[in-house]
Amino acid sequence: MLNTSVRSASPHPREAAVRVDGLRLLETLAGLAEFGADAQGGVSREAFSLADDAARDYLAGIARSAGLYPRVDEAGNLIVRMAAEPSGRPVLLMGSHLDSVTNGGKYDGAYGVVAALETLRSFAEQDVRTRFEPVMIAFTNEEGALFPQPFWGSMAVAGVLADAEQAVDRAGNSIRGPLARAGGDLDSIHRAAWPAGSIGAYLELHIEQGPILERRGFPIGVVDAIVGRTIFEFTVDGQQNHAGTTPMDCRSDALVAAAQIVLAVEDVSKQRRLCSVSTVGLLDVEPGLTNVVPGRCHLSVEIRDTRPEQLAKAEAALTGAAGEIGRATGTEVSVEVTMRSSPVHTDPLLSAAIEATAERLDLPTMTLSSGAGHDAQIIGAVAPIGMIFVPSANGLSHSPEEHTDDVHLMAGADVLASTAANL
Ligand SMILES: [Zn+2]
User: Fold this and answer.
1) What is the whole-number distance in angstroms between the Cα of residue 60 and the centre of ligand 1?
2) Which of 56, 109, 124, 250 sits between 20 and 30 A of 335, alpha carbons compared?
3) Cα 282 to ligand 1 centroid, rounded to whole Å
4) CA of residue 143 to ligand 1 center, whole Å
5) pLDDT tens, residue by residue, 224-254
6) Ligand 1 center–CA 162 separation, angstroms
7) How far, in Å, from the CA of 324 to the mean position of ligand 1?
């Protein structure tokens, strides 16, 4: 469907450059940042919090007063259309997420949602007609900060949200009440899924959350792929013993083995280049006392890359290293893979459309991959996806210091609107 729509672009291509109202975009973004604003800077607008509900209401109110049609679906996603009823044409879905991590920034997710809303407003004001029906979406709970089911909203739209009834927050409370308060309905959540073929394409504009665009001096990034990721749990069993009376050659120290695992994890990406990044984000030591040789350690490890074969190589290398380290340290090391997500590629025709549009707007582009996960990777299972990045100052994100210059924010929104107009 997309192939034909791009390739058979009408014999009289309009090549329209649609400019959004940049100041209004910045105002809406600043207004949104008030919801969940932390006293010490940054934003804590976790999905299904009161601040998240208020932010959804705020955007719906803006949409309504602009003559657009907002509604909340069964999963809590905010959907804005240009008419009261669906047109029946394939939809060009545009958006991102409204929720943030705890003490995150103002731009992650929110920027893509506000730019999509601004795109609809510009289309209405400038009477832009499009082949696809443009629709804005704010996916709920992309981050999974309170309810650790990330990509909740996009998975519901893609029809791949399993076990929704079992979803609980970190304290074990059901999602049912908070979802209802947000306007959703757990009992009919399957109705949030879109029928096959109804989404003609999905475009997501997002801050890069990394340093590459800024470092290389490009205002616009065109994303070719979103990384795949493997998560491992390592457990090291040694012998807990007295730190004063146990000679060094009689020890089976779980933490010494864990330290070697940390270095092996760094090694698979940094020296051996088997995958692009690899991290130990969590290390537990038992019993964790100054005068006790550690008996047990637990490590959470993740690796990322856009190439499935490289992920497999890195995974094999780490599993092999676990055995070697166990033998060398006299400990027992077990490894379990707890999560695998595949890399997702964006649609080459959508990427080409983004590039051509940016070029017409005199905005140089570079192609890059996304090291972070996005709703786009979920929607990629049911529709062609395209992603646009703008620079993140100092590469910072998931931090109160997250920042993107106004000029980049406005340029990215122009690229989104113009690409949408010309598809
Ligand atoms: Zn995001």
Assistant:
1) 20
2) 250
3) 22
4) 7
5) 999 999 999 999 999 999 999 999 999 999 9
6) 22
7) 38
User: Which residue, among 383, 376, 353, has the nearest Cα to 365 in the 3D structure?
Assistant: 353
Ligand 1 center to 96 CA (angstroms): 7
Indicate the residue type of 260: Q
pLDDT at 165 over 80: yes
Distance 40 CA to ligand 1 centre (A): 22
| First-last CA distance in the chain | 12
How far apart CA 400 and CA 102 sit, in angstroms, is 10
Residues with CB under 5 A from ligand 1 (ion): 108-109
The correct answer on CATH 3.40.630.10 for the domain covering 2-226+344-422 is yes
Distances, alpha carbon 160 to alpha carbons 140, 154, 192, 259, in Å? 15, 9, 11, 38
Distance between CA atoms of residues 166 and 168, nearest Å:
6
Q: What CATH code is assigned to 228-341? A: 3.30.70.360
β strands within 208-263, DSSP E:
220-226, 228-237, 241-242
Question: How far is the centre of ligand 1, averaged over its atoms, from the C-alpha of 335 (Å)?
Answer: 30
Q: What is the maximum alpha-carbon separation in the chain?
A: 86
CA of 243 to the centre of ligand 1 (A): 46
Is the model's pLDDT at 100 over the cut of 60? yes
DSSP state of 186: G
pLDDT tens-digit map of 261-308: 999 999 999 999 999 999 999 999 999 999 999 999 999 999 999 999
Residues 402 and 246: their CA atoms lie apart, in Å, by 49
- How many angstroms does the Cα of residue 204 sit away from the middle of ligand 1? 10
Cα 334 to middle of ligand 1, angstroms: 33
**Over 70: is that where the pLDDT of 161 sits?**
yes
Q: By the 8 A CB rule, do 15 and 214 touch? A: no
Q: Rounded to the nearest whole angstrom, what is the distance from the C-alpha of residue 97 to the centroid of ligand 1?
A: 6
Ligand 1 centroid–CA 369 distance in Å is: 14
Distances from the Cα of 423 to the Cαs of 18, 30, 66, 118, in angstroms? 12, 30, 24, 17
Delimiting residues of CATH 3.30.70.360 domain(s) in the chain: 228-341
Give the residue range(s) of CATH 3.40.630.10 domains in the chain: 2-226+344-422
Q: Is the pTM of this model over 0.85?
A: yes
> What pLDDT digit, counting tens, does each position of 36-45 carry?
999 989 999 9
pLDDT-above-90 percentage for the chain? 95
